């Protein structure tokens, strides 16, 4: 065991500047320091390194040290702490805490602070709205779930990781057919075949070939192109009785998975990256009569203008970066590539939930096996060291 004593010397009070080199002689005299066992660490080449070497003192140049924070406009900033954190992450010495890799650095310097702000906001919202049960939605909320539990495990909010996806929720929670919400439910940037579009609602496209032909599509494997959205909308509306009937059948068997997660709690929070609120909308409807007895709140990284069509007095949604599409400039960033970047950064390394299965122990989620290309994609996403930031 080595005993170490620290003593601080006030340069102005001693009347001696380190730049003159006299400080080292004073320390040696007052402390009777053995030159051979003395190492001086400093960032100034002249004052710390050259002056010390003149007396034979071992030195270590702190070239990683940096004090230039640039111009601070903290009095103009809405979030002073946030600006301070982001400026700190630009300093050279921070590089010692993350790997020298572009993805790793982006995760540490960009997505780390982003999630710190979001999770801090989330924790406050759960208190404000007196939430007693928080459901973190697989897969995109897996990292939010881990971070929240790491820092807020002592909060009096029951937390659960709920396995759900658009595909699994749409098989259970479609109880009505509001025309203004239909395109929200089935739209999206990713091109899908007619077979996959109908599968979202639990239908087997091969059983509806005549309807597919009637609206002008050649077969179930056909992928609609730009300008054919109205045909997809037409087809879905032609088949709505079958979709609602199939949902009723699934709900009678599988809805207990959602009901059990909410049982005994009144103020429920759904937590995910967000966007349009479609999953929250169908999740609430899957609860049946329970829905009217509960307040369901969604707390998301962002919500877009279309989420207005999914909210109600029993089904409220809140976005952190953008709330129902406001402010517009931030929403435009999401719509011009931000969605894909966020989903990449938040990607889980497990398969998506494709449905549910009834067992002797209750309803359990069924998850798909990830393809080879998706596994490679998830490996790249795993290099984004967001979690490392929280141990910085």
From TrEMBL:
Arranged from A to Z, the UniProt key words for this protein are: Metal-binding, Transferase
Q: Does the keyword Transcription apply?
A: no
Q: Is Transferase tagged as a keyword?
A: yes
> Which InterPro entries does the record associate with it?
HAD-like_sf (IPR036412), HAD_sf (IPR023214)
What Gene3D superfamilies does the entry give? Answer: HAD superfamily/HAD-like
Annotated GO MF terms: metal ion binding; transferase activity
Q: In its UniProt entry, what is this protein called?
A: Putative glycosyl transferase
What organism, scientifically named, is this protein from? Salmonella enterica I
């Amino acid at each position: 065991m080595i005993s170490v004593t620290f003593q601080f010397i006030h340069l102005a009070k001693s009347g001696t500047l380190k730049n003159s080199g006299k400080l080292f002689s004073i320390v040696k005299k007052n402390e009777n320091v053995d030159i051979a066992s003395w190492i001086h660490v400093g960032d100034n080449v002249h004052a710390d390194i050259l002056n010390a070497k003149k007396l034979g003192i071992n030195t270590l140049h702190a070239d990683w040290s940096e004090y230039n924070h640039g111009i601070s406009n903290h009095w103009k900033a809405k979030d002073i702490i946030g600006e301070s954190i982001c400026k700190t992450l630009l300093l050279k010495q921070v590089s010692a805490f993350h790997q020298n890799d572009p993805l790793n650095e982006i995760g540490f310097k960009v997505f780390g602070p982003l999630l710190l702000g979001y999770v801090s906001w989330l924790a406050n919202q759960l208190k404000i709205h007196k939430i007693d049960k928080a459901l973190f939605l697989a897969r995109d909320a897996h990292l939010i779930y881990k971070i929240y539990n790491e820092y807020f495990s002592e909060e009096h909010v029951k937390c659960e990781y709920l396995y759900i996806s658009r595909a699994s929720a749409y098989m259970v929670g479609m109880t009505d057919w509001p025309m203004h919400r239909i395109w929200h439910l089935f739209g999206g940037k990713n091109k899908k075949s007619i077979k996959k579009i109908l599968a979202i609602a639990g239908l087997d496209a091969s059983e509806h070939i005549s309807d597919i032909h009637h609206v002008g599509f050649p077969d179930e494997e056909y992928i609609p192109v730009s300008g054919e959205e109205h045909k997809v909308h037409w087809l879905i509306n032609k088949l709505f009785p079958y979709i609602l009937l199939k949902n009723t059948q699934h709900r009678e068997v599988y809805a207990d998975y959602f009901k059990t997660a909410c049982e005994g709690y009144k103020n429920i929070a759904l937590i995910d990256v967000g966007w349009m609120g479609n999953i929250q909308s169908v999740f609430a409807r899957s609860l049946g009569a329970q829905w009217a007895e509960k307040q369901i709140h969604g707390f998301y990284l962002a919500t877009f203008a279309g989420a207005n069509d999914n909210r109600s007095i029993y089904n409220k949604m809140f976005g952190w970066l953008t709330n129902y599409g406001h402010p517009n400039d931030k929403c435009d960033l999401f719509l011009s590539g931000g969605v894909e970047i966020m989903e990449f950064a938040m990607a889980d390394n497990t398969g998506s939930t494709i449905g549910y299965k009834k067992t002797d122990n209750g309803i359990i989620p069924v998850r798909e096996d990830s393809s080879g290309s998706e596994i490679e994609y998830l490996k790249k996403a795993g290099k984004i060291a967001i979690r490392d930031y929280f141990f910085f």
